[in-house]
Amino acid sequence: MKKIIILGPPGGFSKRDYERFGMEFLKKNFSVKFLDFTPWIFPNLWKEFSNESYKGEEHTIISCKEDFLSFNLETDPVIVLDWLNVKNIKANWVREELKKRNSLFVTFDINPIPENKTNYKRILVDLITEPKKFFRNFFKFFESKYYSLKKICPHDISVLGGLSVLKKSKVENKIFAHSMDYDTYLNIRNKPTNNKNSYAVFLDQDIISHPDTITLNLGQPVGEFYYYSILRKFLKKFESDTGLQIKFAIHPKSRNKNFRNLLDGIPCYNGNTAELVKNSSAVLLHTSTAISYAILFKKPVFFLTSNKLKNSWIGPKIDNLAKIVNARIFNMSNDLNKPLDPKVLLKVDEGKYKNYLDQYVKIPNSPDIPLWEIMTKYIEKHFTL
């Protein structure tokens, strides 16, 4: 049986990861191992996620170089699904070791997000006000660029999830596919809609404590007290003006355990974001990639910012994403005392939505089947190991 090694992304291996990575499907066709490098490459994250890891025979924890060498004792070729999401000396050493086995590397660019123009003013401000952070990010940027130039394997395959990444891809073997969120959409799109009680859903992306704030050195865009105070006030105002109850969809990787107190009675939900969007009347967000559900189910979207958020790294991302889908932005700092017109809120620019779908969710005319089935069929047709 062909073997697959998944180089897992930072943040541990959760039950959600088990499902999203199609483990049950892959195990029918391959011998599968999921290597979790979090304790070695991102030890700060491991302190928080080690107790939440999904325990299964496929899951192998790599806490140091010796752990990987002990695992990688065989010499036969394998299929490597590279989800490490980082290019540095440790990650590329792992890739080079697997390359020695003449392995087939599969990379993924299936969750693209719209890119912002370089904000040179912001860079200058960071250099002046936070020089340590600036030079740390500067080093990591060039480290990533340097290791990106390293050729991993002569037979790379790239799985692509939108025209925006297809245009940039230089890999010879391309698999036209879609995002992981589209797989979730396929599972629920034909289920009956339950919209008996109208509501709006807020898509949390945990901008205060998301693992990316560590792995990408982003830092908190605003303080926790300020953020939840103004967010809570605006969400309750939205409820009052529109008559739509707010349902708070917790980000699946959120590390915040205090939502009940922070949101003061706004109901929270975990693990069913796609269903919440499908059955909603409207969607509120900052820049969450879960906007793809709103696009797929053609729900009106509204973006939330504030004076402090606008001056942080997330501010331009909010502005750019709202422009791409032609949606309204509410400034929570300035709009708390302005009435919201419910009729204006329920409009969708279908042309912009279709463009977003094609560019960032699913390549047009790609197979309308699960992602892992698309990948497996391509490998079986074009490659032998």
Structure, explained:
The chain has 385 residues and is α/β, with parallel strands linked by helices. It has 20 helices and 13 strands. The protein has helices at 15-20, 23-29, 38-41, 43-49, 65-71, 89-99, 120-129, 131-148, 163-166, 180-188, 212-215, 224-242, 259-263, 273-278, 291-296, 307-310, 315-325, 342-345, 350-361, 371-382; strands at residues 3-7, 31-36, 59-61, 79-82, 104-109, 157-160, 173-176, 199-203, 245-249, 268-269, 282-285, 301-305, 328-331. The chain has a 7-stranded parallel β-sheet. The chain has a 6-stranded parallel β-sheet with strand order 10-9-8-11-12-13, sandwiched between helices. The longest helix has 19 residues, at 224-242. The termini are close together. The model has no long low-confidence stretch (mean pLDDT 86).
- Quaternary structure: single chain
**CA-atom Rg in angstroms:** 22 Å
Helix content: 40-55%
**C-alpha termini separation:** 10 Å
Shape: globular
Computed structural class:
alpha/beta
Count of individual beta strands: 13
Unreliably modeled segments: none
Q: Strand share of the residues?
A: 5-15%
Mean pLDDT: 86
Give the helix tally: 20
Strand order of the largest sheet: 3-2-1-4-5-6-7
Sheet with the most strands?
7 strands, parallel
Please write out the topology.
Layout: E1 3-7, H1 15-20, H2 23-29, E2 31-36, H3 38-41, H4 43-49, E3 59-61, H5 65-71, E4 79-82, H6 89-99, E5 104-109, H7 120-129, H8 131-148, E6 157-160, H9 163-166, E7 173-176, H10 180-188, E8 199-203, H11 212-215, H12 224-242, E9 245-249, H13 259-263, E10 268-269, H14 273-278, E11 282-285, H15 291-296, E12 301-305, H16 307-310, H17 315-325, E13 328-331, H18 342-345, H19 350-361, H20 371-382
Parallel strand pairs: 1-2, 1-4, 2-3, 4-5, 5-6, 6-7, 8-9, 8-11, 9-10, 11-12, 12-13
Helix pairs in contact: 7-8
